[in-house]
Design brief:
483 residues; seven-stranded antiparallel beta sheet; TIM Barrel; six-stranded parallel beta sheet; nicotinate phosphoribosyltransferase
Length: 483
């Protein structure tokens, strides 16, 4: 059986293949399609952090239908030999544009745009959504957790609760892009050069006759990285006192302890009591780490209660994005150029206005106020449009068009960058450390009002006048044709 990690080509839905076969049989192999990957508006995530591009690009560049894939597809009795022979030499030859990983993105904005022969562009849908939806979801949750921690370090602790190995591995990667500084996941640490962190479990303490002996044995092995879990039996009655006893022994031997971890109980109360005990015992630099079903809401609450916690271990609710288990990303056709013809914008209509797509081959511009350096709005426009930053720019709400803002001293930054041209990688892919640095700069460029967990201010995402006019003309025309 083939190791699927080497070749994920068949990581697709069957209907991608049946549509490809249909396009081929209907002579559409020369048509050029433009697809946008974006997520729709929802009630939980008001912004997201784009992630997963590196794995998406790796998938695209390594598509190969191997002989066993061809044989499997033949066994389905759905495809004729012409199509199977086509797949034998199938490669991606088109163009891909994407926002850099770590970019703050908002509903309806293309995160990735694919422009390629229609069979190739169609085939990418499932895998791209699988990769980008998941990592963007976890990076977004991590960003909110890190924001709630207000500069404290956050460790990703979720591997044992993740929905499978891939979710744990790539969720750890995404969580670091979002703002976590380390992970308990050793394989993710090795693969992506993420700092790994962890101490011992309650079972370690329970394996010794007494809590003190367990702590002493651990400290003997790791004298310069001794962080003790103190809530196995009685946090304040025995756990912290035994930890202090061992810390004193460490200091007498020329070492300094790292600190303690709390994993249960009233974390606000326990951390304040533990801080007082550690300080009075002469260990003001010993940190207090907390874990146990944490998320951005509980961290915010604990901070408001004056909890004395320095380091946060966040697991289940981060790695599963517990309050929103799916991003809701979609991949929609926005333009089509028939062989030998001109580009035709395409639109999907719906009784639900949020599901009406934006037509055309587009770019997203971020508008920065030159005085503050802060992002003020995003503008989705056609790639053929040009803007003059020396002239005032007025943007308006795409539904409530009377809501308008005019910028006079501003800078426009195009977000979508070309990463693949003609099937070849043309952009340098940054390492994870560079992505994280960029993601931090991105977050700093937004006002706190957009990032707060409760009732955040809604960031402006508008359409250019030209795109707005084309979209509404198409809606009206389709309404007439199908009235």
């Amino acid at each position: 059986m083939r190791d699927a990690a080497r070749n994920l080509t068949l990581l697709t839905d069957l209907y991608q293949l049946t549509m490809m076969d249909g396009y081929l049989k209907n002579g559409k192999e020369g048509d050029i399609a433009v697809f946008d990957l974006f997520y729709r508006r929802n009630n939980v995530i008001t912004y997201s952090v784009a992630a997963g591009l590196e794995q998406a690009i790796d998938y695209i560049l390594n598509i190969r239908f191997e002989e066993e894939d061809i044989e499997y597809l033949r066994s389905l009795h759905l495809f004729d030999e012409q199509f199977l022979e086509y797949l034998r030499t199938f490669r991606f030859t088109g163009d891909v544009y994407a926002v850099p990983e770590g970019t703050m993105v908002f509903p309806e904005e293309p995160i990735i745009t694919v422009r390629a022969p229609v069979l190739e562009a169609q085939f990418l849908e499932t895998a791209l959504l699988n990769i980008v939806n998941h990592q963007t979801l976890i990076a977004s949750k991590s960003s909110k957790v890190a924001y709630a921690a207000k500069g404290d370090s956050v460790m990703e602790f979720g591997l044992r609760r993740a929905q499978g190995p891939d979710a744990g591995i790539y969720g750890a990667r995404a969580s670091v892009i979002g703002g976590c500084r380390s992970t308990s996941n050793v394989l993710a640490g090795e693969m992506f050069h993420i700092p790994v962190a962890g101490t011992h479990a309650h079972s370690w303490v329970m394996n010794f006759p007494t809590e003190y002996e367990a702590f002493r044995a651990y400290a003997k092995m790791y004298p310069d990285a001794c962080l003790l879990l103190v809530d196995t039996y009685d946090t304040l009655g025995s756990g912290v006192p035994n930890a202090i006893r061992v810390f004193k022994e460490l200091r007498a031997a020329g070492h300094e302890p790292k600190g303690i971890r709390l994993d249960s109980g009233d974390l606000a109360y326990l951390s304040k009591c533990a801080r007082k005990m550690l300080d009075e015992a002469g260990f003001p630099d010993a940190i207090i780490c907390a874990s146990g079903d944490l998320d951005e809401y509980l961290i915010t609450s604990l901070k408001n209660q004056g909890a004395r916690i320095d380091l946060w271990g966040v697991g289940t609710k981060l790695i599963t994005s517990a309050d929103m288990p799916a991003l809701g990303g979609v991949y929609k056709l926005s333009a089509l150029t028939p062989k030998g013809g001109s580009e035709i914008p395409k639109i999907k209509l719906s009784d639900n206005s949020d599901k009406i797509t934006n037509p055309g081959f587009k770019q997203v511009y971020r508008i920065y106020d030159n005085k503050t350096g802060k992002a003020e709005a995003d503008l989705i426009a056609l790639r053929s449009e040009e803007f003059d930053e020396s002239r005032p720019l007025t943007v308006f709400h795409p539904k409530d068009t009377w809501k308008r803002t005019t910028f006079t001293d501003y800078t426009l930054r195009p977000l979508l960058e070309q990463v693949i041209r003609g099937g070849k990688l043309v952009a340098q892919m940054p390492d994870l450390a560079a992505i994280c640095e960029y993601a931090e700069r991105e977050k700093e460029s937004f006002w706190d009002e957009y990032k707060r967990p409760d009732n955040p201010h809604v960031y402006k995402v508008d359409l250019s006048q030209k795109l707005y006019d084309i979209k509404n003309a198409m809606i009206a025309q389709i309404g007439e044709n199908h009235g």
